[in-house]
Write a structure and sequence with these properties.
Length: 389
Amino acid sequence: MVLLGREITVLGAGIGGLTAALCFAARGAQVRVLEQSDAIREVGAGLQISPNGARVLAALGLSDALISRAVRSEAVVLRDYSDGEEVLRMPLGADPGFHLIHRADLIDMLAAAARTAGVAVELGRKVDQVVFSDSEAVSLRFADGTCEPVSMLVGADGLHSPVRRALDKPAQPFFTGQVAWRMVLPQTQFPEPCAQVFMGPGRHLVTYPLRGGTERNIVAVEERDRWTAEGWSHRDDPMRVARAFAGFPPRVRGWLESARDVHVWGLFRHEVAPVWHRGASVILGDAAHPTLPFLAQGANLAIEDAWVLASCMSDSADDAEAFARYQVMRQARTARAVAAANANAKAYHLPEGPVRTMAHIALRMLNRTSPTMPLRKFDWLYNTDVTAS
């Protein structure tokens, strides 16, 4: 095996970084993960693992762990904001299926598997800068002032990746005119195992169950002119989101009015990175292709990246060749997914008027005749199995 005994440093103990560490370790590499936090924790909310991501987790031996922690989704249900009535119900396949899971549970699952596989996780290692020498050797400059060379670096360090900054010219993201609130609410009854989207003029709300139905995940998106900073950690007044969705059905208003811990973030559009590798360094996940949350593919694309990168490196003793092949295999697909997510936002936010009316009539007709048709346009996304290539 080409990776047998190779020393690989992964920057970031998120979903992409831990999956990459598992993929490398499974191929015989000696892997360490550097995480800037003092603990592996994820304070986010829910996410959806679609079949393309689930196939990678299955290939890593994690199917049972995923099923035990997730709710398997049976459908995606589109609802009108005014009365909550069903507009379209799109049934989902059962194998490998769509899984609704708390981000923290997925991180815990991946971290446990990584440690079992012999991956070393070093906490409190904040990298400020990635430095290349004239010979393309790479070093990490840490926040404490120390500097350390690494033989191979994988940047899975997210939206503000110092690895990407070292590879590409700074890009200027732009505010989409949308903000998103996220929250997780406790529940006493198991709700319908599906993702529901309440669509309204200039706003929509997505909700689905987590943790055996004991919790409800909510992401609420509103169009606005005011700029809101990026990031997941901005707390907000729960009443602000409740007011923004005051015209939605009573059950939705009830959920929002019961919320106590709400976070808000501005949605920014970023370009897919033009350069993914240099010397002994390479990027994946949000560091390479940040995506808006309207197709639920951020985690899935990172999981795919991890498998493909490890496979390319296993197939070639030449890192430059392996990295170049990885970028070719991933760049067009991830760009297509990013574009599809961008388009979904507009479809959810149709204003009152004839266009919205006709669109909903068409969806209701599909609901009676061919409810799976809208999802089929994403067969290119969900039906892909990167582990088979």
